[in-house]
Please model this.
Amino acid sequence: MKFDPRDVKWFAALSRAASEGIQASKLLFPIERQKDGVEVYLVESSRKDGSVYIVEVHHGHDATSIVCSCKGGQQRRVCKHAALAAFHAGLFPTARELFVEEVEEKVA
Model:
């Protein structure tokens, strides 16, 4: 699914991840399916039973797409696991960045 920092679904999913206290860890060593421009995260399940989901953050030239191995992610829905990985990847803009971008669009 394409990451869009203006889509409120991403913020809602990140809020769910934070309220449930799930954790994410970035893989620092390459795995077989990892390619250039791809960050891989292990994100724990909210069930707290030790299960984790693999989340891939694909950095493209004009867009970033995120793939999560959870049921929702497999159906290309925004999920809390993907949102948490996006947050750890630094993809969520700050409120100031959003404000500046909005002002620049109005001026242009």
